[in-house]
# Entry
Amino acid sequence: MSDDAVLEVTDLHVSFPGEKGRPLAAVRGLSYQVRRGETLAIVGESGSGKSVSSMAAIGLLPTNAKVTGSVRFRGRELLGLNDKEMSRIRGAGIAMVFQDPLSALTPVYRVGEAIAAAIRVHQDVTSQAAMKRAVELLELVGIPDPARRALAFPHEFSGGMRQRVMIAMAIANDPDVIIADEPTTALDVTVQAQILEVLATAKQATGAAIVLITHDLGVVAGFADRAAVMYAGRPVETAAVQELFAAPKMPYTAGLLGSLPRLDAGRGVRLRSIPGAPPSLAELGAGCPFAPRCAFAVDLCRTTEPELLEIGQGRAAACHRTGEGLDLMAGPNGDSGLTDQASGIPDTADTEPEATSDAEGVEGALAEPEAPTKSEAAAVAAPVGVAEPVLTVRDLIKHHPLTKGSIIRRRIGTVRAVDGVSLDIPAGTTLALVGESGSGKTTTVMEILRLRTPQGGSISVLGQDLEALNRGRGVRRRAQPVRAGIAAVFQDPLASLDPRLPVGDLLAEPLRTHGHGKTAGRVRELLEMVGLEASHANRFPREFSGGQRQRVAIARALALEPRLVVLDEPVSALDVSVRAGILNLLGDLQRELGLAYLFVSHDLAVVRHVADRVAVLNLGRIVEYGDADSVFEDPRHPYTRALLSAVPVPDPVVERQRERIVLPGDPPSPVVLDGDAEALRGCRFRSRCPLYAALEKPEARELCESTDPALTPVGDADRSAACHHLDAWVPALVQSGTVA
# Structure
């Protein structure tokens, strides 16, 4: 063990009992060491063994797990210690930050009590001293009014605030190592930036080493010092972060990097998806596990698994062809590093029908070497004869009453979920709705999909005004062609597909509902359209991987040849390699069929890749609207600037030199209590607005406090923003460099 290493894992193996007596090898030979003040990132697709390795290191695996190898903390071997001995180390020497803080915090303990209890387990202090220290820790991690908030319960905190509490608990005893398991996965991009800042503060305050488990390579680029890439339970590449991103030596690493949509890339740039699916860990063959998905594989790769060999100072890779000077980012033909189904990669779903990972079964079935030019895109976006948009929304309002009381209920306020949204989508184009959780994105979508007369404002779908459509007799008959012309794809395909029906019946169901005759031919056509095979019609949804299920959901949405497809977070639950294939597919289908997309997402890097126009929502209102290139290259509203600055770029050099705006606090609630006139007065973003905080002239601040800004044209007629000070900007508000 190195003199300065605080945690060293050597040849770690973890297996679980499998079916028919075959053990499932979750981790196979993982080795790493981490020093004080250093951040090591462990990355890879779902099922690669990242989280299992961290649980093994601190003894939190179930009793049926078999763990071998070595885990040494400050020179002491941890494997083989009983739970009582490990309890002295957990929380004091090695702390853990879990992905879901709500399930990790005890719901009957106030957060201050929970932190104080963690302190008293390892330190001989009074309860008063422990509580005082808990308040100090809450203040350190940025909890406002920490003395009061220490008396609150976990359910009274937002997701980002709960994660801050977890970090405060993790650093309560000045640990030497902090293991953070996907600490930002379920958070908004602005809250993610806050949590990374808090983790950097925690590392600075304690000097601890951090083991960061994540699938977000953008976070790795800006936060980590070194990275270990895992595949099929074992490390396949380790390197310093800058070296890894600049010149990956393993095709799998190059595939992950190439499949990332980037905020600094243009719209429509084709992503390099990784074909196939990760192998079943219960049935690993003799060769390289990545060989069936690798464009560079040779016969040796299919018969012998490569060892992880050192190829430089602090650098190692597990690939038989590492020393051949292959340009993995350019690929074997100079165009694409990884091939797709058309290039001969087999469909691994045929050999693994019980696939359970979120990896994609077939990628790149519709090859497109280059993105269309702007003139070509315009030709698709405005076909001859289309005089009006596919969707027009004007001043849409959706308010929910807030009531109190169990027997006699009385109204005490209003949830202003959507508060005056207006938008248009021409045929063949994509409009993206973006914003933090609670901004009104999904509510807007659901109001459109219900095809009912809105509470306020107007909605016109395919030229049909919903108020006129729902008036008088024969509503169902008149609405049928409109319903056929609009379709939806949701975030979780497994929840939106009936598990009792095979895929063929799922695709045929909308056809039968709308009176189509023979459906077998159309089902076969739909499956081939989304890159699946006709034989897949006999499988059930559970037999597909996550990416394949999303392809089935897209095929079902296209069954009736709609003109508008609503996509509500269609790729947020997928691995990055799978996400690339779905985004490529959506782009191909739009160009081929002239579809209009309403794309809802909180991932602005994905939005940059797919959107023609962008509507930025905050508290149920659009605060910036216009051409995507214009919005991304020159954001005018302070909220848009903050959103874009918080999106990590998967390039260490770029990411560590970027300007970042960290918004204070969590997104405010859209609830307005009755009689609280002040809540509706002035700009609703001002409580978090860095520009408002920096205004020096009283009359400028008074304008923000008294008048709610309306959308104002910016530049051309297709661009607008809702801010009183569109031309003002204060460089001092921006933090330069990393969040650390």
About this structure: The radius of gyration is 27 Å. The chain has three domains: 5-231, 378-617, 622-736. The first helix runs from residue 50 to 57.
